[in-house]
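Methods — Computational structure assignment.
A single polypeptide chain was analysed. Its primary sequence is given first, followed by the predicted tertiary structure written as structure tokens.
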Amino acid sequence: MITVTLALAFAPARRLLLQRTVDHALYGDRHDPVRAVSRIGERLAGTGVDGVPEAVGEALRLPYVSVESKSGVTDGSWG
């Protein structure tokens, strides 16, 4: 009985605490779009448009980011 109670109590705690920590470490702010955009905005406040690829890559933990104009010309890349 005690084992079942502990297992039922541990499952939600693992999901809430441990899984969130691991997800954030691996994926950054991808799960929270508002937070990701906020972090990108904070980064861009000091760097301007030239820092867009780096800010997006770091906020979303992406290995590579490329920014292209509508005409298909690459304006910048990171990673």
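Note: DSSP finds three helices and two strands in the chain.
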